[in-house]
Amino acid sequence: SRKENLERAIQHESSGNLNAAFECYQKAVDISPSIAVELIQ
Fold first, then answer.
1. Can you give the residue ranges of every domain in the chain?
2. Rounded Cα–Cα distance for residues 27 and 3 (Å)
3. Mean pLDDT estimate for the chain
4. Is the Cα torsion angle 34, 36, 39, 41 positive or negative in sign?
5. Rounded to whole angstroms, how far apart are CA atoms 41 and 25?
6. Alpha-carbon Rg of the chain, whole angstroms?
């Protein structure tokens, strides 16, 4: 889930693993097609 990925990203960033943090941040803000439809309307 977005919340889990955000939590993982914060953990990775605090431990200095910036590549893993970046990947988790991307997953945390990824927009699915169903959310895109909601945003467009």
1. 2-40
2. 10
3. 92
4. negative
5. 26
6. 12
